[in-house]
Structure formats: C-alpha cells, structure tokens
Amino acid sequence: MEEDSSIKSWRDCATYPLPGWCDRHTTLFDVEGAKLSDIPIDMEVAVCSVSFDSTASSRVGARDGPSAIRKASHVYSNQFASRDIGIFRNMQTGQLHRVTPPKIFDFGDLHVFPTSPKRQVDATRAEIFHLASSGAKIITLGGEHTLTYPAFHGVFDAFRERSNNGRLGYIHIDNHFDFGTTSSLHGSLYHGSNSRRISEIAGVDPSAMAFVGVGDFTSASQYDQLLQSGISIEPMWQVREVGFQNALRRSIDRCLDHCDGLYVSIDIDVCDTAVTSGTGHVTVGGINTAEFLSIATILQDYPIIALDIMEVNPSLDWSNIASHLSARLLFEWLIMEKCEIANQ
Question: Quick one: which of 191, 332, 198 has its CA closest to 263?
Fold first, then answer.
C-alpha cells in the first residue's frame, strides 16, 4: 500500500479526523469522556484505546478488547458507588484499602489503520505523546501487542521533554519476549517485535528493561544475548522458585537503579489459558489470577508513568474472564489505595 506523501512527520498523524465508528459512549469506570483537542487541566489519569489487531498470527479479535474491558469495569465502579464504605479489607491479602479515585478521563478509541502497521505506529505514537505531554498517567487498552512500541515511544518522548531528559524504564509482563527481528508476513512491525523496537529507541537503557513471566519456548541464543545486554529476566522457572510477587518486585527494583519512572506493559497471555481463555495465544504454565491481580498493589509502591493491557480477545473469552481481570487490575491499582489503619 502506498503511504500518504502528505504526512511529513509522525506528529502530523494526530491531526487526522477520527472515524465515525469510534466508541465514545462507554468509558472506563464510567468516568467522564474527553477529546484530544481539549485536554482537561485537572486530569491525573488519561485512558485511551487502539482497536488494532491486523498482525495477529493465530486467533484474531483483540481489536474488541478495549470495549470489553470498559464494559467489565462498570461492575466494579457501580458496585462501590452504591456502597457508603470508606475502608475495605481485601480478603485475598488481608490488606486494608481506601477508596481514592483520581481524576480520570477516557479519550476513547484513537486512530486505527488496519492496512498499514507503519501508519498505525506513527498515529499511536503521536496521539499518546499528546496525552502524555499533559503530565497525566497514561493507560492504553489494546488491541495487539504491536501497539506497545508506539505507546511507549510517545510516553518516552513526552517524559524526556517534561523532566529534562528523564529516564523511562520498561517492564514487560508477558508469556513471550516479543523480541523478534522481523516477520515474513508483516515485516518489522508486528505483535512479536514490540519489545525489540523499544530497545532500539535512542536513549533507552537495556539495564532499565525487564521481562517477567516469560514461559514459552524461545531462541537459546536470543535469551543469552538478552542477558548479556543487561536486560533483567524473570522466566517462569524463577517465578515458581521465588514467587511471582517477589520476581516482579526485584525486576522493578533493578530497573529503578537505572531510570526515573516506569512504563508497564501487560499481555493478558501471561496468565495460564486454563484460567484465562480470552486471548489469541494458548498459554500453558502461566500465572494464575491471584498472581495477576497482585500486580495492582505492587505497582502502587512505584513511580509508574504509564501502563497498557494488551491482547484481550472477548470472542475467545467464554465467561469474560480476561476482560474482568483486566478491569479489576486497573480498579485495584488506580482506585483502591493501600492504607495501614482503618481509623485514619
């Protein structure tokens, strides 16, 4: 496909008009919707989505993930809105939590270019750069994992501009490395190359990158090269030895020795398919739902600049488990703040 010669820079893509089918009626947790042309000055968290899955290798449908996550989120926001309770006890962990919702705005679906991964990458980078320049925390719902590359790049560019060349680290929670060089089907931009493309961005420190939960077969030479580069890896055999929470915390701690803030990318296929069927890849030996939800409270202890959740596929989700897990993680991370004593 011939690219549009009128586009001189990736930044220009933010000026495209949105297509009429974009869903702007359902927002995450039923928060207020917003437009890229009118960024609220009091915004603390910006939610957006990209319904793109054109390089899927097997089971397509992740384009519908953002809508499913938003719908699932209303179960949690409506439940708590109907109860006049200030402090909750998490009966999974024993931890006390206080309901403290930040100022969240949902910008809905961003641009989608299903026939052009290159244009998709440029547009996503431009629009998320625009959102991240506000200083708000960025939540991106996918869509396939290709999108993490431009989403990270947009946040990375904005973070460096806002913080005098601040260093942004990258945490990849996934059953796969997604460190492919190229695909004979899709070229260099596809769902299995996103973390490699991130590592190639000028200014990204490999010592500030980490992979947690990788459990599939991978190239032995690639694995050795990743370790030699200084990238932190917590594969599933180590996760089983030390526990998922410990593995995630020590990966984050290592990264923060080399950066000032973190971008966290979560592929829902880090979960075992026996408990979470709603994704394109069948994962055998992944983490369980309790381990997945522990991500939420762990991240509250760290400087998270942005987070994405990718590869939720509702067409394969027999009981909406993947979308509900994703919504629950976001709810516990953003809204249920940990606290020590109930009478504070």
Answer: 198
Task: Give the pTM.
Answer: 0.91
pLDDT score, position 6 = 59
What's the rounded Cα separation, in Å, for the pair 141 and 167? 23
How many CB atoms lie under 10 A from the CB of residue 148? 28
pLDDT at 21: 47
Q: What is the pLDDT of residues 63-115, one digit of tens each?
A: 999 999 999 998 888 877 777 788 899 998 899 999 889 999 999 999 999 99
Residues, the chain, total? 344
pLDDT at residue 8, as a whole number: 67
Q: How far apart are CA 198 and CA 185, in angstroms?
A: 20
CA atoms within 13 A of residue 263's CA, in its CB half-sphere: 28
Helices (H) and strands (E) in the chain, counts: 9, 12
Q: How many CA atoms lie within 13 A of 136 on its CB side?
A: 25
At CA 139, angle to CA 260 and CA 206, rounded to 5? 35
Q: Residue 247: in which H helix or E strand, if any?
A: helix 244-256
305 residue type, one letter: I
Q: How far apart are CA 284 and CA 51, in angstroms?
A: 26
Token code pair at residue 175: 């059953």
Q: List, for residues 318-334, the tens digit of each pLDDT value.
A: 889 999 999 999 999 99
CATH code that applies to domain 10-339: 3.40.800.10
Q: What is the number of other CB atoms lying within 10 angstroms of the CB of residue 118?
A: 14
Query: What is the pLDDT at residue 344?
Result: 47
HSE-CB of 215 using CA atoms within 13 angstroms: 23
Pairing of strands 336-339, 96-99: antiparallel
The tokens describing 94, both together, are: 């024993």
